[in-house]
Amino acid sequence: MAQEQEQQESGGGFPGPEDDYLVDFDFGGDWLGLTLHEGTQEEARRVAADLVEQFDPLRLGVSKTALQHELENLALTAYESGPLLTRVAYTEGGELLADLSVLAYGEDGVPRPSPEEYRPMLLKWSYAEVKGEPQVTEVELPIGPAVRVQAVLAEKRRFGWGKKLSECLRYWVWPTGQEEILLVEARWLNFERTDELTELVDRLAPTMRLVPGAEPATDHAPEPSSES
Quick one: CA torsion of 136, 22, 186, 73, rounded to 10 degrees? Predict the structure, then answer.
């Protein structure tokens, strides 16, 4: 996840003051919490271990060790981009379906650009090329106006051996009464489940809210999407 680096390199914004508020959604049991506060290996290991224990070992198609290792790496990788929130969706068998992160862009005392002014930035990914024509839609969320962008991405693999295709669904959100622009981004690799995952994210977006000075709700008993 390279959204923060992407915006800074492109001159499109700055990380927002995440200490001013927390971002929360009505996650239900579809998304597992991977947000790190310290970004240490120990914290990632602890968070991953807690999540692994929530899976039914009789339904897992991978070892608990492998699942924990994957969750640790996902948490640490996401932390590098400075997200306000990180979540992942899994099947009951331990297959990663999608990852989701929320980042804030803004600068104290600097008016944020309007969705129209910011539109050139909405279609740029520094870490991948867009394949085909992105779907761009202006939407009105309870939290404020937003621009929904969905696209297929081609990301360069390590050492230059080919490209990895993924699908990305973004909501660029202008919360009413705030100075920042919030980016909600979900990504997945399994194109066969695109309709299912798109619906999952689209259902989540309208529940987005800001929680000042409080801990966001947590879901201790996830009910990941069932395997096909």
Answer: 150
